[in-house]
């Protein structure tokens, strides 16, 4: 008898018998149903809760029951394997539930005002008694502000990451990396305050005959401050994943370093970089606090991000949700749905674009 | 086209660690030179110092001089990319560029260095792939990803990529260690063929391979871990494998190395 056979209680098989009984799938389902029934019966029978508690209890009973029954039939190791698998699946469902709930709530409540008026008109001259009014101005604002912020943050962030990975050595690079980490933790309202005090109050008067003014561009600046660290960090991680031998392969062909980075390293890391950028874009599109401070939140359509106040979808949601009009909540829900849809479309489009360039199909 | 390489008293350092100590050797044009020796003895380091690839690591530096046809590649006014254009390198693991097709991989060195004309690139791709004995296997799928080939094919693709830029010298760092015997044979055949045009230096752990392919062999060794590697003996391959001067060499090639 080997040491393993003597000492490990997990081993039910012997050298002469490598088979073990398997738990019948029907029995598995049976345990699940039984556990659910017992759980619901307990929850309702004692009046201690509703179906939610019943299901939770059911899952717990299922895990325990599975462990006992499978342990008898298949042996302890196999039973533990089953229990952990079941636990991981439960955790996965638990993690997806809130997301599904959010999407369902958004769709079910947002669909009311999903009409042409919503996407075609602004809130100009819409009073508390008017049922119509739309978010056209807010959609324009969000697209322009996030677009400008992306145009500023992506080149800066990607170049910064390239510096950190490919060139940066010594104290300066360490310092830059440290401050990028610090910037990651900046609350968005602080970014808004920074732009308010620096851009809106100090710089913008130079361009406006001495009067400070809100603008969509100020919002873009605040969003840039928020996007930069995310983009730098994610791009940095992706560039570090590119194997060194690929760079050496290019160097060995006499390709200069900058061209190696541009034509070999970045294309290899591109899908990951795009994912990081889209996470930053999604975060920026959903930011309310900095926009609230510096964009102005105008009710009318304003295409010019450099002059006059602009609206944005997240700010629109915030304002409509707190509005006294009985028609406002529906507008808020639809705007929230629109925001999620825009971010989703942008993400999918970016992913497709990044994949089209690479050869892996 | 092929050039003569002369190393005199080359010592290599990684920071304060001395990896090789005072290596001197002369490599004649259009020959194959094999570098053998136990792991960690500095033969790869020496190979990488011939095209300044060791500089990829921070704090790596060289003492002594390395000349290619009388030009010292370590002179301060030498452009490192120019050195690497002259002295190509094939690595231990095949490293085709994953985002490029077979065709793009072969012409990468030309294209990234500014050759734009499609007809020239097409010719160069076909010739390099033919030289690398790969043309017949891939001619119908040039636009497929290079990373989709088998290990042996990938390595020949990397050789094709290297010779496409027409270097003077080709360095090979254990090019067959990840390959099966048939692919190894294919690459050895290829080396004989390339010998007419290039000077080849190959690092290998396979002594039969060194004996089969090379004209000259250099044996590197270290006394103990932490010591710098030294070139123990450098001579005609036939002499090294039949009647070596140094006892250490004999011990190593007969498998009695401690």
Automatic annotation (TrEMBL), chain A:
Q: How does it sit in the membrane?
A: Multi-pass membrane protein
Q: Cite the entry's keywords alphabetically.
A: Cell membrane, Membrane, Phosphate transport, Transmembrane, Transmembrane helix, Transport
InterPro entries from the xrefs? MetI-like (IPR000515), MetI-like_sf (IPR035906), Phosphate_PstA (IPR005672), Phosphate_transprt_permease (IPR051408)
Domain ABC transmembrane type-1 as annotated: residue spans? 139-354
What family does this chain come from, according to its entry?
Answer: Belongs to the binding-protein-dependent transport system permease family. CysTW subfamily.
Where does it primarily localize? Answer: membrane
Q: Which SUPFAM superfamilies match?
A: MetI-like
Q: Pfam families this protein is in?
A: BPD_transp_1
Localization, UniProt: Cell membrane
Q: Does this UniProt record's set of keywords contain Cell membrane?
A: yes
Q: Which organism is it from?
A: Paractinoplanes aksuensis
CDD domains per record:
TM_PBP2
Transmembrane residues, as ranges?
27-46, 52-74, 86-107, 146-166, 178-202, 214-232, 264-285, 332-354
**Keyword Membrane included in the entry's annotation:** yes
Name by which UniProt lists this protein: Phosphate transport system permease protein PstA
PANTHER family cross-referenced by the UniProt entry:
PHOSPHATE TRANSPORT SYSTEM PERMEASE PROTEIN PSTA
Which gene does this sequence derive from? Answer: pstA
Please give the function described in this protein's UniProt entry: Part of the binding-protein-dependent transport system for phosphate; probably responsible for the translocation of the substrate across the membrane.
TrEMBL record, chain B:
Q: What InterPro entries does the annotation carry? A: AAA+_ATPase, ABC_transporter-like_ATP-bd, ABC_transporter-like_CS, P-loop_NTPase, PstB-like
Identify the residues that the record assigns to the ABC transporter domain, covering every copy. Answer: 5-247
Q: Does the keyword ATP-binding apply?
A: yes
The entry's keywords: ATP-binding, Nucleotide-binding, Translocase, Transport
PROSITE patterns cross-referenced by the UniProt entry: ABC_TRANSPORTER_1, ABC_TRANSPORTER_2
User: Domain of life of the organism in this record?
Assistant: Bacteria
Q: Which Pfam families match?
A: ABC_tran
User: SUPFAM superfamilies annotated for this entry?
Assistant: P-loop containing nucleoside triphosphate hydrolases
Q: What is this protein called?
A: Phosphate ABC transporter ATP-binding protein PstB
